Amino acid sequence: MSAAYYGALYPEFMTLTHGAPPAGAPIxxxxxxxxxxxxxxxxxxxxxxxxxxVAAVVVSLAIGIAGLAxxxxxxxxxxxxxxxxxxxxxxxxxxxxxxxxxxxxxxCSALSPLFAENDKKSxxxxxxxxxxxxxxxxxxxxYRAFIEDWAGRAQDVVNAHPDADPFLKRTTQRFIDDxxxxxxxxxxxxxxxxxxxxxxxxMTAYEGPLTAxxxxxxxx
Length: 220
Prior knowledge:
Layout: H1 3-9, H2 51-80, H3 100-126, H4 134-159, H5 166-185, H6 193-215
């Protein structure tokens, strides 16, 4: 530091004869370091290295490298691993495909005697007299019991032929249900509009198995 610059900063310490204090002398008004013990020499303290931070960085880098290595090894192993053996495929069914025509013939053959029995019993009941006559009313309970029993036997035949023609199965099922509902709702006395409609509806359904079985050469 030049004397002129020092004088500009501290003019009160400048003299005409002495000028700036010698280099290394303490500046008046500014405290210096405290005196040390005898024989002790003050030296500037060396800056301490942050070894903890350095160690943490090194450990983090090591962990990251190790994780990367494990990931690469895992990918390599998964890419080179032998393919797993495929599971056993389901064995194809040994049963041949169902033949709806053959099933329909079998169903018609089983239903033929049942339909013939129903026709005979129904015609005999109708022959007892007009609706509401004493003879017709007296024959109604027996006819109702017959239809309930007949419907159960006919239903067994339908259930035993799941592969038959859908139209044959639907119309036969409808005929069975219509006859059961008809006799369950009939009462002694003159026939009602519901009785007439139920009878007509059942006869319409009956056309299904009649025509389907007839086309297969099965009659009754």
